[in-house]
Specification:
Multidrug-efflux Transporter 1 Regulator Bmrr, Chain A, single chain, globular, nine-stranded antiparallel beta sheet, 29% strand, alpha+beta, 206 residues, GyrI-like_CCH_Lin2189-like
Length: 206
């Protein structure tokens, strides 16, 4: 039976529309960093190269290579860590050109250095891209976090973040970093802006 993250990892990927305290375990990711407005083509290109690697892993058995411990699964959604340059933080106007980010796609536990090298080999042969040189494999543990489902435009996220900050203050928690995580459950190319579903997350301490 295919592993479905929507069913097996509901606490992580399908929160409710109200803040909740969760503990996020360490996970493996293909990652790439970038800077600038996410509406620009460079951001889309970075997403594309991540998905090419993610699907290379997913389809490895058809390429004649079966990783140890491999199982059928649904490719995980795109995630991103978002921050702002010092110049962007000092201004009064929110300037998307000053955003800095790390976008990533989670990988199943069986993905290791050997599997990663094989994925790069497959993609380099089928769809070479200079951006592959910027992709790296990493293990990240958010740990104790407050997260919430945001429904609507990305530009309306501050309203949801405000609710999360109220929850954090009311429960005597502290935000570890204003670098926040977003998990994109909807394809912005296919879903209306007011129906987009995005998981928003702050890492916190007690």
């Amino acid at each position: 039976m295919k592993y479905e993250w929507r069913k097996e990892e509901k606490e992580i990927y399908l929160p409710r529309e109200k803040p909740a305290l969760v503990k996020i375990p360490k996970a493996k990711y293909f990652c790439i960093k970038g800077k600038g407005n996410p509406n620009n083509g460079d951001f889309s290109n970075r997403i594309a190269v991540l998905y090419s690697l993610a699907y290379a892993v997913r389809m490895m058995p058809k390429s004649g290579f079966i990783p140890n411990g491999y199982f059928e699964y649904t490719v995980y959604p795109l995630e991103g860590l978002w921050d702002m340059t010092e110049g962007g933080k000092s201004g009064d106007v929110f300037n998307k050109d000053e955003l800095i980010y790390t976008i990533m796609i989670k990988q199943p536990y069986f993905v290791n250095e050997e599997v990663t090298e094989k994925a790069f080999e497959i993609v380099n042969k089928k769809k070479p891209d200079k951006l592959l040189e910027e992709v790296y494999f990493d293990e990240i543990e958010d740990g104790l976090s407050v997260q919430m489902l945001h429904i609507g435009s990305y530009d309306a996220e501050p309203e949801t973040f405000s609710k999360m900050k109220d929850y954090i203050n009311e429960n005597n928690l502290k935000i570890r970093s204003l670098v926040h995580r977003e998990i994109y459950l909807s394809d912005a190319r296919k879903v209306e802006r007011d129906k987009l579903k995005t998981v928003l997350r702050y890492t916190v301490t007690k």
